[in-house]
Structure formats: structure tokens, C-alpha cells
Design goal:
This protein is an alpha/beta fold. Helix content is 37%, strand content 18%. The protein has a five-stranded parallel sheet. Strands 3-4-6-5 form a four-stranded mixed sheet, sandwiched between helices. A hairpin with a 4-residue loop joins strand 5 and strand 6 (117-122). Helix 6 packs parallel to helix 11 (247-257).
Length: 259
């Protein structure tokens, strides 16, 4: 029986390759040729990193922003595994519709409007994590970035609890949900404007707090720069910060912490 090329390199795929060699189904030269082709798949406009799941525990995530629908479709075709999932971030609804049409409208391609993300899902997400990850927002306008973080964490196998619109303008809303904050193993706190909420949350819990500044706010917020600088200067020792609007980065690193 011939060993088919793996579209994604995992420990299971490499184990299958070695077992096929041990059984005599593949020659040494065939194994060497397959290994030479495994690290990435070269397309016209991209090199899809099929090796990332082996190196980092999760597959490559595609940034949809700035890519044409044709490029996204080609990357999805090259990335799709027999099981698992592929995540494409920063995708508008019209882009998702065109990509779905170009791929023949596969039933396992999902568009998450609130997270602005496409997911090609093959089978259930892996289950893991030492505890829930709480995703908290200061305002409703911060939800798209928060949903990007929450979806990323969920696809990495984590249980996610959402707590939205609990900013410092009405602090009693946050204090009414202390149970959500205190049972979380990691917290992602998303805020624009002056970016004060992560410091408040950091002063209430003994778990890692990943602060995400958003570009939401009026003129002097400077597209999220004020929130970023405020979070970087937090006096809460549990707080660390990712870049402006980087929900994916927060969800990813929270998953690594929670592994």
C-alpha cells in the first residue's frame, strides 16, 4: 500500500511513515523524498508551512487581510488536513462568500462573523487545557477582537468563558462576575480607550492576564496606542501585553500557557 503525502506534518503522520518503512512498504529513497517535501508546500504566491503543527503543537494560521480570495482559496486547498482544522483570520463576509464558492461550498467551511474568521473544520477540536480561559472585554465594540481570541483558544482545545461589556465606566458589572474571573486559569482582557480594564482584573486574580489593546476610541486614543501604553505601564504584576487588535496572538499564547 502506498503512503500518501501528508498535507500537515504531525507526530502521527511521521509515525505512519516510519511504520510503512519498517513494514517494507516504502524504500529508503522514497522515505527520504517524502521527508524532503514535508516542511512546506509551495504555491504561486505562498509557501504553506505544513511543519508548524510538529514544531509548535498547532498548525499554521492564515492572515486573510491583504490576500485575494484566490490566494486564500489556494492556501486552504493546500492546507486542508484529513482531520483537524485551518483558521483564516481577518476575513470580511464578502470574502468568505467568494472563498466558499471557489472551494465548491464545502459543508465544513464555517464563517464566524463576530470573529471575522473562516474555519475549515475536519472533525472535533482537540480537548485540553488545565482550566477555562476567560475572555473579558471593556465594551461591546471590543468584541470582534475578543471573539478572534476566543475562537483561537477554542480551536486549540480550550474551554472558553466570555464576559463582555464590563469596563471601568461601570465597574459593578465586572465585580458581579468575580466567579468567572477567579475560576479561569488564564484571562484575556480586551479594551480600547485608555485601556484600564486589564490592570483592574490583574489586581483581582492570581492568574496570568493577557491584555489586548484595541483601536477603539476617540482621537487621543491614537488608534489604540494610548491603550497599549497604558497596559504596558500596568502596576498589576500579573499583566502582560500583546499588540493592538491582536486577538489571535492572545488566544494562541493563552493556549500555550494553559497547556
Amino acid at each position: 500500500m502506498r503512503f500518501s503525502y501528508a498535507l500537515r506534518v504531525t507526530r502521527e503522520a511521521l509515525q505512519q511513515l516510519l511504520e510503512s518503512f519498517q513494514r517494507g512498504e516504502l524504500s529508503q529513497d522514497e522515505v527520504l523524498e517524502m521527508l524532503a517535501r514535508l516542511p512546506f508546500r509551495e504555491l504561486e504566491d505562498a509557501r504553506v508551512d505544513t511543519h508548524r503543527a510538529l514544531r509548535q503543537g498547532v498548525p499554521e494560521v492564515v492572515l486573510g487581510l491583504g490576500k485575494s480570495t484566490r490566494q486564500i482559496s489556494a492556501i486552504l486547498r493546500a492546507s486542508q488536513p484529513a482531520d483537524g482544522h485551518v483558521l483564516v483570520t481577518r476575513v470580511e463576509a464578502w470574502v468568505a462568500r467568494e472563498v466558499s464558492e471557489q472551494l465548491g461550498e464545502p459543508p465544513d467551511l464555517e464563517y464566524h462573523e463576530s470573529a471575522r474568521a473562516l474555519v475549515l473544520r475536519r472533525g472535533p477540536a482537540p480537548q485540553g487545557g488545565r482550566g477555562p480561559i476567560a475572555v473579558v472585554t471593556a465594551g461591546t465594540s471590543d468584541v470582534p477582537v475578543a471573539e478572534e481570541a476566543a475562537l483561537t483558544a477554542e480551536l486549540c482545545g480550550n474551554k472558553v468563558e466570555r464576559l463582555y461589556d464590563v469596563g471601568v465606566a461601570g465597574l459593578h458589572r465586572l465585580l458581579a462576575s468575580l466567579d468567572v474571573l477567579r475560576r479561569a486559569n488564564v484571562l484575556i482582557v480586551v479594551a480600547g480607550m485608555e485601556g484600564a480594564l486589564p490592570s483592574v482584573v490583574g489586581g483581582l486574580v492570581d492568574r496570568p492576564v493577557i491584555a489586548v489593546p484595541t483601536s477603539i476610541g476617540y482621537g487621543a486614543s491614537l488608534g489604540g496606542l494610548s491603550a497599549l501604553l497604558g497596559m504596558l505601564n500596568s502596576c498589576a504584576s500579573t499583566v502582560t501585553v500583546v499588540n493592538i487588535d491582536n486577538g489571535f496572538g492572545a488566544g494562541f499564547v493563552a493556549s500555550r500557557i494553559n497547556a
